[in-house]
Write a structure and sequence with these properties.
The structure is a single chain. With about 270 residues, the protein is α+β, with helices and mostly antiparallel strands. It is about 40% helix and about 15% strand. The strands form 2 sheets. Strands 1-7-4-2 form a 4-stranded mixed beta sheet. Strands 3-6-5 form a 3-stranded antiparallel beta sheet. It is globular and about 60 Å long. The mean pLDDT is about 90.
Length: about 270
């Protein structure tokens, strides 16, 4: 993994423009490993790794048994990848990692609450689409596709294949569309993504970690706001609108004076 420290927002824009077609993930702490919420949860609270497969299976089973009460069409639960995406977007720990095709969306998630150095990870998905791990050349993306019935159980649930799959469900929900989202699904839960990717041979780095210093946050967040990249647009519902109000507290306009009744209203 290449680690790149930048000093300005312009440098981030220039650097990511060279990553055409890549996928990106922003983290508010540059020291965090690139692991799924399920991996983090299990590592924190379930030290018995031998039971992880059964626990993940049980979580899926419980969700499927109960989620139909809240869904207009429960058939979504029969599709492994759509079921996992639904769980992910409603806060359940899953093995999926949220990525986006937009470096700016990733930068927003990295910076919006960052108080120290944050990071955007860039994943060379065009190369990975045709690659396979060096220990088994048959395990290419189309072979392990978890959108195909039975493949999630075959290639992922067993937690014994160091593979990754990048893609989206055939039907995408509003949040995934709004965020230009995609998912990375790892074949093992006990290793960060950059270690799994070491199984894939490549002439260049398949993953880059771009470290963003706190000093660029003000300029970057204002730039993203002008692009209309906010919680309100990335989460197109009342929750997203409510969360977007936080950054509105930071915005000021030229000529505004908070100490006068004649001050113009914010728009």
């Amino acid at each position: 993994m290449d680690i790149i420290h930048i000093a300005s927002w312009d440098e981030f824009v220039s650097l990511t423009s060279e990553c055409d077609g890549w996928a990106f993930r922003g983290l508010p702490d540059a020291d965090w490993q690139l692991m799924s919420s399920l991996s983090r949860y299990l590592q924190s609270f379930v030290p018995d790794m031998a039971s992880w497969r059964q626990r993940e299976e049980r979580a899926l089973r419980i969700f499927r048994r109960k989620a139909h009460n809240y869904l207009p069409d429960a058939r979504v639960l029969a599709d492994d990848i759509r079921c996992l995406a639904l769980m992910q977007h409603h806060g359940a720990p899953t093995r999926m990692l949220d990525f986006t095709k937009s470096p700016f969306v990733a930068a927003f998630f990295a910076l919006h609450q960052a108080i120290k150095s944050s990071a955007v990870f860039a994943l060379d998905t065009p190369t990975l689409w045709s690659a396979a791990p060096s220990n088994d050349a048959t395990l290419r993306r189309e072979m392990i596709d978890p959108c195909v019935s039975g493949n999630f159980e075959r290639y992922f649930a067993a937690n014994n294949k160091e593979v990754i799959w990048v893609g989206e469900p055939e039907e995408m929900d509003r949040r995934l569309v709004a965020q230009s989202g995609t998912f990375v699904v790892p074949g093992v839960l006990d290793k960060p993504l950059d270690e799994i990717i070491q199984q894939y041979a490549s002439d260049g780095a398949l993953i880059k970690k771009i470290v963003l210093p706190p000093s660029i946050r003000e300029e970057a967040m204002l730039s993203l706001y002008r692009m209309n990249i906010t919680h309100a647009t990335l989460f197109p519902d009342l929750d997203g609108l409510s969360r977007s109000i936080g950054y509105e507290l930071e915005i000021t306009w030229p000529g505004y004076r908070a100490d006068t009744a004649a001050a113009p209203r914010f728009r």
